[in-house]
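User: Before I run my own analysis I want an independent prediction to cross-check against. Here's the chain; please return only the structure tokens and, at the end, one sentence I can use as a sanity check.
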Amino acid sequence: MAHQKQTRNTDHMKWILQALALLLTISLNACQDMKKKEEHREALNDSMVLTLPAAAGFSASVDGKDVSLYSLKNREGMQVLLTNYGATVVSITAKDRTKTYGDVLTMGTTEFTSVGLANADVINGVTLVSEGSASTAKVNGSPYSIVVSSAIGTGLSNYNITYLPGKLTIIRKELIDDV
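Assistant: Structure tokens:
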């Protein structure tokens, strides 16, 4: 019995460490330049909160093994829910984009990055939407959020997918004087 409890605790610790590594990877991908990455790295240790279990009253057993639900949340409010049983977590982040005021930006389906896929599993495309993509989107409303969702591909049912937004920055249109 003591051996089973020690094994269960070891399994829980492995999942916690893997979750922390994933959250660190996701957080670092969100930073744009080295200065932000360094500031983020310094704040990361102070900003992570681990809650056990994530849902009040969560209790499950699969094939005779206890299943726990964990929640990792950073200072910016990003939250990842993990279990010690089942699917692997994959994050999909919309790439940051830039456009000139007055232009229409076609969002496409491939402007994203992903972390965590295994084997031959692949994401072929996602849905990307931003209010800033219209020609009438204002510079002073910038940056606009790029929302990513609805991944399609091979083997994705094996994963819990976390979608992370990107930013769309609109730059001023240069006026040319023909005088």
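Sanity check: The mean pLDDT is 75.
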